[in-house]
Amino acid sequence: MADTASESSTCKSAKRKKYDTEFNQEWSKDYPIQRVCGNKNAFFCVPFQKTISCSHQGKLDVERHCSNSTHTKNAKVIKESRKISSMFSSPSSSTNEAVTKARIVAYEFYCTS
Ligand SMILES: [Zn+2]
């Protein structure tokens, strides 16, 4: 947890290539992806729990990844399990809150590791 200082210096001195595409927050509206801590040239796929580079083609990299069959299968599984849990209990705000918190914890764990 002591790498806050080194992180900011890394950002400033990071090698920059003109053609490296950075993550665009807008993409997360269309795809189940998140920003990656410390890597602007990649996105984190939530159903896949995986970091994928988008430095070459940007949104095209996202589109290509998310349209592959394995990805669709994984995303479907997540949707189905959501349906099932909502059948067992009516979605209360506390349940949703717990799910959101769990996701944040998982994401932060990923970021710091
Ligand atoms: Zn994906």
Fold blueprint:
Layout: H1 4-13, H2 27-30, E1 33-36, E2 39-45, E3 50-53, H3 59-66, H4 69-88, H5 93-112
Antiparallel strand pairs: 1-2, 2-3
Return the structural class. Answer: alpha+beta
| Beta-strand segment tally | 3
Order of strands across the widest beta sheet? Answer: 1-2-3
Whole-angstrom Rg: 17 Å
Features:
113 residues; alpha+beta; 3-stranded antiparallel sheet; 5 helices; binds zinc ion
Commentary on this structure:
β1 and β2 (39-45) form a beta hairpin. The protein has five helices and three strands; from the N terminus they run ααβββααα. With 113 residues, it is of the alpha+beta class. It is globular and about 50 Å long. It has a three-stranded antiparallel sheet with strand order 1-2-3. The protein has one domain. The structure holds zinc ion (ZN).
Brief summary:
The protein is an alpha+beta fold. It has five helices and three strands.
